[in-house]
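[Q] Does anyone have a clean structure-token version of this?
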Amino acid sequence: MIPSTDQCFALMTEYRMLDNIKAHSIIVEKVASLLARGLRQAGQKVALEKVSAGALLHDIAKTECLRTKEDHAKRGKQICLEHQLDEIADIVAEHIVLLDFDSNHGVREKEIVYYADKRVNHDAVVSLDDRLEYLLDHYGRNEKSLCDLIRKNFSLCRDVERKLFCMLSFRPEDIAFMIGRRNVKG
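[A] Here you go.
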């Protein structure tokens, strides 16, 4: 099942999503939905409701996992499955690290949400370079191996960006303006 927007917000409340994580998820949803609509106009078969719900719930387990130290993407997938939201479970599971990316395959909803999440820092639309810098500073812990993994993930994200934007009629730097976030970096 794909949850409605109201169901997504009810789950955010049920899982006590912190306000800052909710704000981030709302902006990720705006970016992902913008991309999904553009890709549909370009002829891609993209389920808009799936993208929207996956984006809203991609961090459903983050508040809980801040306390438990579990992997919030893995726990988020479990939450989705517990609520029979199997159609978005993989989107939630792969919003941090995207599996089996194929630049020659049609666009998948999980690629859109994965990319959108990388473009939103807190509740601001930022460039991939800015987001990478933030993640290295906050999560890299000055550990070379961890920083290398983050950089490798962003290399993949740049491949996703190329795949998406070769079909879109706008550029990555246009996103902030297009969703009405003119005061943030794009």
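[Q] Thanks! Anything notable?
[A] The first strand starts at residue 120 and ends at 121.
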